[in-house]
Amino acid sequence: MSKTKETPLLVASKMGTVEMVQRILKKFPIAIQDTDCNEKNILLLAVEHRQTDVYNWLIGEKYPEYVFYHVDKHGNNAVHLAAMYQKLEVWRIPGSALQLQGERKWYKYVKHTLPPQSYVRYNNKGQTPRQIFVETHAKLLSDGTQWLVTTANSFSVVAALIATVAFATSATIPGGADDNGHPHLENQPAFDVFSITSLVSLCFSVTALVFFLAILTSRCRHNDFEKDLPRKLLLGLTSLFASITAILISFCAAHFFVLRDKFRTAAIPIYGVTCIPVVFFAFNQFPLYVDLIRSYIQMLPLRSYKVFYTDSSEATSSDQKKEGKEKDD
């Protein structure tokens, strides 16, 4: 046994190797009582290091109650450790805002899956899990709020510009109107496309602007990052993308009346080229869009295994290890 009192079972729990945990406990059931130098058992280590697979397997097995009642030498139970931030991006979602969302989901998941009587409310310092969560996630909350406000502010400017153009476009009648107010081109298919898409662009751009302004005026509390703020950002991005697409189609339809009949067929490829900005915008924002959808739908975010743990029980990321080697060189 090493000087840190880490048995193979405890190491496997920290590293998230479910198969090894299962085999060790099947062959040596008494190993469930193993603890490290901080008196943390297999459940506490799995919770502390965000090993979702190991934790889910443990709570699904019928182990003695003391496994779930266990506290470390500081009086921290599983919920305390779930609330304690490890200062590493352990979730497979980029950005401080989504990392905070993952931390919030993990904390609530552990809290609700353990029996209510299986943990004490205070540790040796007199702290509740909620107090630990607020204290250790203060910087992550600040970074996530700054990123979210900056992103919403940038997108709101774009949405406002599109709303301005869409309003001016929807109020303009191509070809003018007769004395009765009927458009001269009302029987043209392109006119119908122009009328509909200009109105759609106006509606979606205003909708996107409302969502982004709602983010800017939000109080940005910890629980807001779990569902409310990601949902607003997701709906705002969707509305913005729809408004950009609609305004380009509206422009092409209005420009179609300017061309002579012999040039209209040749102009179709040019209209296709005008869609390139929408394609670029979609590809640029697609990773963020996918991450928002995935993090919003999933009950628990996916664990990133770029983070590993050394023998001294200190968490390290592969990126940090590379930076350390470069400094040594």
UniProtKB/TrEMBL annotation:
This protein's UniProt keywords: Membrane, Transmembrane, Transmembrane helix
Residue span(s) of domain PGG: 146-257
N-terminal signal peptide: none
Segments traversing the membrane: 147-173, 193-216, 237-258, 270-290
Xref: InterPro entries: Ankyrin_rpt, Ankyrin_rpt-contain_sf, PGG_dom
Name of the featured protein: Ankyrin repeat-containing protein
